[in-house]
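Following up on my earlier thread - several people asked me to post the actual chain instead of describing it. Fair enough. Here it is, all 106 residues.
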Amino acid sequence: MAEYKFGTNEKNLLLENMENFVPVIPEEVVDFYLKKSGFNCPDPTVRRFVALATQKFMTEVAHDSMQYCKLRQASSKRRNLVLTTDDLSNSLSEYGINVNKPPYHQ
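Reply from S.P.:
Thanks for posting it. Predicted structure:
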């Protein structure tokens, strides 16, 4: 995998854009989980980068889950899609996260 090198202008533009970035995930939520994991950083730009990375991850998981849902319901004549835990579990397994149903649901 090739490594991309940012130029000085690109770094400055990215940092400038992060100043105005309003994350979908509230900063309080990001702060809570960062502190819970032992990460304490007073720089709001770093917290916004974490929020952006989390937002991107959640978007990719939701998109992949929807694709699993569409594949599962392709043979069905239903028009509305119903996202299930199995769709989400299949999507998360692509990222190395295993979600198991509790034994009383099996």
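Residues 23 and 61 are 17 Å apart (CA to CA). That should answer part of your original question.
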